[in-house]
Design a protein that fits this description.
The structure is a single chain. This protein has eight helices and five strands. It has 178 residues and is an alpha+beta fold. It has two domains: 114 residues, Beta-Lactamase (2-Layer Sandwich); 59 residues, Arc Repressor Mutant, subunit A (Orthogonal Bundle). Strands 2-1-5-4-3 form a five-stranded antiparallel sheet. Helix 5 packs across helix 6 and helix 5 crosses helix 7. It is globular and about 50 Å long.
Amino acid sequence: MDWDMLAYEAAPVGIVATEHRVIRACNRSFAEMLGYARDALVGQSFRLLYDTAAEFEQVRDIGLAPLRLDNAYSDERMMRRADGGQIWCRFRAQTLTPEDPLARLIMSFAVIHEGPPVSLSPRERQVVGGLGRGLTSKEIARELGLSPRTVEDVRARLLKRFAVRNAAELLAHLTIGG
């Protein structure tokens, strides 16, 4: 095996190449972090890794403008594992086709939460994702097409559920499995 291939395969982060949101190649780390055999992922839509079609589309819409502007995008997001559990990842993407950002994309995923799987509803994942990107409740609400009050309610339920006082503690709890 040559050094380039060794680096790709042994990278401590998941690496994925996609065409129009279909997985064309991925390294062992990516498959293992999500609990799949690599062959089960190659050729699949990234939709497989989200609970709902709406969540899958929303994630695309959030990252598309930055990809068009800077050819790159990053955030933190919840991904669904093969066993139905969820992992919180740091996601980075670089487009190879700036004129059509999703045509050819290289992505990396690094697990943030390594403890037992955290089970969050799709709406909770959306709110946590917004908090992880440093957005306010109003900004999250605008992005999701919700009222700020709805976002505040979700946020309050999460704070109570994880027995933390604020968004920073919530993110820290989810990050280190507090």
